[in-house]
Amino acid sequence: MINKVRVLPLIVLVILLGCQSPNCTAQLSSDPGARINNPLGGRPFRLHLGRGAVVLSALTGVAYFINKKNKDLEDKRLSFYLENGVMYGYKFPFTIIPETNLGVNYKVTKWLAYGADIGVYTPRDEFNQSTGISMLRVYNKFYLRDTDKFRLWFENGVGVVYFTKLFPVANPQEERFGTNWNGVVKYGLGAEVNVNPSLSILFGVRHLHFSNAEIKGKARNPSADSHGIFVGMNYNPRRDQSKKKDL
After folding, report:
1. Total domain count for the chain?
2. pLDDT (tens digit, 9 = 90+) per residue, 95-141?
3. 8 Å CB contact between 156 and 123
4. What is residue 27's three-state secondary structure?
5. 138 with 157: CB under 8 angstroms?
6. Which CATH number does the domain housing residue 114 bear?
7. In this structure, is residue 35 part of a structural domain?
8. CA 65 to CA 54: how far, in whole Å?
9. Is 82 helix (H, G, I), strand (E, B) or coil?
């Protein structure tokens, strides 16, 4: 029988890839709206707060009922991480956005985890010089592979960010000004490799989307999108203890 622990994350990924607008292209393109620039298609903010959120909530809810309780997971559910990344805007003015996130990760099944983090973003380009503080960003993490030494996952999440200066600001190709308050959406692929039973290295690729859901109208919502990489460390305080119990 096929292991449902491995199949369910793949189902999630297929459904998410299907939540795309019909006008997205599947080839490399300089068009900011091309699929290579927005891999999941559609508008990221709507994907996560609309259809995407409904699909993910339904799937994670079903997961509780169709997966047996994993006793091996009990002592290793909660971990803490610190990560740094750099995101590169693919639309003019090609904003570079360094990010630092501190968060918690809580596994509810072998293939699924919920988490939350706080973060700092510092978008920089010829026009934007701001600092954003994310008070809380929540996410789902779907493990495509999970062993004692290595984990591979797909992540997606959404949060709220306050920028010290308006972001994004107007430029020669975009006359609209953004706002201080924005939503931030992330999705991407990541991996985790253990250094020892309780400490692991994180790395991966990520898409970030900033917009304000038109809280002051479309004329104040230029949005900002970028791709990038991140690295970090994850600490699980119970892994060492559970390892000693087995000895």
Report:
1. 1
2. 999 999 999 999 888 888 889 999 999 999 999 999 999 988 888 89
3. no
4. coil
5. yes
6. 2.40.160.20
7. no
8. 18
9. strand
- pTM for the complete prediction? 0.76
Closest C-alpha among 68, 41, 22, 71 to residue 225: 41
DSSP state of 151: E
Q: Is residue 31 part of a domain?
A: no
Check: CB of residue 78 under 8 Å from CB of residue 67: no
* Residue matched to tokens 């495509």: 144
Q: Is 6 a domain residue? A: no
Contacts of residue 188, Cβ cutoff 8 Å, sequence gap at least 6: 154, 155, 204, 205, 206, 207
Cα dihedral 153, 154, 156, 162, rounded to 10, equals 60
Q: What is the DSSP string of 201-245?
A: EEEEEEEEEEE-TTTT-GGG---EEEEEEEEEEEE-HHHHHHHHH
> Residue 236 and residue 148: Cα distance in Å, rounded?
12
Query: Which structure tokens are listed for 203?
Result: 């790395």
Q: What are the pLDDT digits (tens) for 33-55?
A: 555 555 555 554 454 444 555 55
